[in-house]
Amino acid sequence: MTTLYQRLRELLSRACHLGVETGLLLQPVAAAEIALERPRQSSHGDLATNLCFSISKGTGKSPRAVAEAFVPLLRAADTEGWIAGAEVAGPGFLNLRLSETCWNSAILDTLQGGAAYGTSQAGHGEKVLLEFVSANPTGPLHVGHGRGAVLGDALGRVMRAAGYDVSTEYYINNVGNQVSKLGESVWHWLRAEGKRAAALEIWSRGEPVAFPDGFPEGFPEDGYRGGYIAQCAQDLAHAGAFSEAMAAVGSWADDTAWREADPASLTGRADNRTITVKSWQKMLERIRIDLERLDIRFDRWFSERGLHGLDADTLDSVSDCARRLVAQDWAYEGEPAAREGDDEEEAGDRAIFFRGTSEKIPKSFRDSKDRVIVRGDGRPTYFAADIAYHDQKLARGYDRLINILGADHHGYVSRLKGVLHALGDLRAQEGDPLAARWSGERLEVLLVQMVALLRDGKPVPMGKRSGEFITLRDVIDDVTTSDAASGRDAVRFIFLLRKADAQLDFDLEVARRTSMDNPVYYVQYGHARLASILDRARSEGKGLRDGALPTGLHLDDERELALLCAELPETIARAARSREPHQVAYYLTETCRAFHAYYTRNKADNRVITDDDATTQSRLMLVAALKQVLHNGLTLLGVSAPDRMVSLQEAGAEGSE
RNA sequence: GCGUCCAUAGCUCAGCUGGAUAGAGCAUCGGCCUUCUAAGCCGAGGGUCAAGGGUUCGAGUCCCUUUGGACGCGCCA
Predict the structure, then answer these.
(1) For A444 and B71, how far is CA from C1' in angstroms?
(2) Is the pLDDT of residue A652 over 50?
(3) Start-to-end CA span in chain A (Å)
(4) If you count Cβ atoms within 10 Å of the first and of the last residue's Cβ in chain A, which end, N or C, has fewer?
(5) CA of A599 to C1' of B46 (A)
């Protein structure tokens, strides 16, 4: 499907070809490279292009002179009459006034496109692996995770719409010290049934479980302290099959049972014990439920255990990668080179370090220090697993990897890119014909800044030490007003109103307020208003008919709105290219603003539904097109587009507190 | 100390590969509901784009320096 902007670019490109033929220009310009933008001032026309600045280079003429010579060529190329006026402005801008044909076709494009309107092939089917959230399954998601989740999900939707072949993935960190600690914490609660019951009682009242009073004896100082751990133990204790299996472990009374491998353990490692595995599975289940409440689902949940060969039918690719890195001198055993002569060498175990500081790594990906991949005791680090994971991502055939990480992980980015470079070199040395696929350039990392939780402008305290903090679930519950969708819509839209690298204030009070300062309602109200106009027309027997034409639109407002419809595909493609879903949110807000203004301004003497059939049909087409645009845009953001909204007064009467 | 990111209206933030007179919401002030949803609209005030220098036809946007803030520099994940 071609769009208005594409047709206009083609036209400008054709004019450039004429320019080459007549000797005005040196080279033609491809349609895709032509920038079109909507000027801020209406006196500058409907669309402007700075095309003449670039094509004048090398001609010896000024951009303005080229632009003046270009106008007649544009007229000649415009055999279909898209352009109503073209004038040169300033140092060489070309301001275009578009003909009625243009805005009519914008409306027809929208209605014909339907739910698919706005999609494009801008991404050329590039295979993208989008990894996000990937929170450790050691506790509930918090607001920061929620932001990354919403951003990643919306980005996936936007990029798919723009013609990228996107897969989404959640990497489950179910190996290592953190999950071991989780298992150990749960274990202590499992043993202390009486304490557990008391703690859950305290917890259910919303109070933090006091340490050490409410905690079982011997509970580790650095264990997970949240009340959810006691809850997890409770759930496991009541799961019949599990408690039977655990009975075989023997005594619950002392730590030896914990220290010795349980029957299901293959290696005796603490992160592979039944309690540990059951615990993180429980946590992950909760995470999955929370994400589904935000309408977020992943194409794949990728288990780190598989990389270590701990899941069924998996091999230990972490060790394999480490071995190969050592074999090609990308890793070495000993003290880190960067710290040579620093301290006296300890006569302890010798770890394996990755050469992240190697000169062979492009400077922008180079690390300041060589990092450990295998500890002195032989256990691989998180980094080692991540190496194997990203190696596998590229081996699976993705052209591009996008990771969304919390901004506090930014130090990790160049390290990971450096590794991908090393893997490319490694594979080249091994004679892999596809080695060029492995490169730091393939990886893009989006860093999401923190979320500051506020209530009525004041920061909400988060006691990280006590383990009691406001979870994502709490926040969704808190901002849910009418139906289940309202919480999701508010949370998603507010997160998407900021770009990733800006800090975000999330005010619970504003988010739950069903009033003007809550931006999500503004757009949804616009959609509902459009729907209600169409309903009204139908009920008056003046509904939109098939085959109607939008030729009865003559108001400036109407032209502006039609051209805004034409911008949706542009906006989606741009948001996808720059990985910034917030651009869609801003576009929707702006389009809504234009509609509300049109509606109110013309309420008195230019209503949509009139006695003149042609005008009514035309305006209904515009209304239907706008509704489609808002609907498609909101869907990309994962926000619902209601046809009706409960009025403020009704809601207020219902929810009198 | 080294590194990454950020700094735009009173507040929270947009500003598209560098483009024309820097925008929006909130807050403040003044208007608009007999008639398709007032969760709306119209208007007013509000700016040294942190500071200084550079690149060019043109800089909020790119480069350098300074200041201020966030974060990172584990055999944690």
Answers:
(1) 19
(2) no
(3) 52
(4) C
(5) 28
Which protein residue has its CA closest to C1' of B35?
Answer: A604
Q: Transcribe A456-505 into DSSP letters.
A: TTEEPP-BTTTTB--BHHHHHHHH--SSHHHHHHHHHHHHTTS-TTS-EE
Residues 6+ away with beta carbon under 8 Å from A63: A52, A53, A56, A91, A92
Alpha-carbon torsion (A337, A341, A344, A347), positive or negative: positive
Convert the pLDDT of each residue in A275-285 to its tens digit: 888 999 999 99
Give, in Å, how far the C1' of B39 lies from the CA of A422: 55
Q: Which amino acid is at A431?
A: G
Measured distance CA(A488)–CA(A193) in Å, rounded: 36
d(CA A99, CA A109): 16
pTM of the model: 0.93
Structure tokens that stand for A14 in this block: 């054709």
| Closest residue by C-alpha to C1' distance, nucleotide B7 | A502
Question: Which positions of chain B lie under 7 Å from any protein Cβ?
Answer: 2-7, 12-17, 19-27, 32, 35-42, 57, 70-77
Please give the helix or strand (H or E) that residue A97 lies within, else none. Answer: strand A93-98
Tell me if A358 sits within 8 A of A421, measured CB to CB. Answer: no
CB A132 within 8 A of CB A159: no
Tokens representing residue A47 in the block: 């669309």
Over residues A277-322, the pLDDT tens digits come to: 899 999 999 999 999 999 999 999 999 999 999 998 999 999 999 9
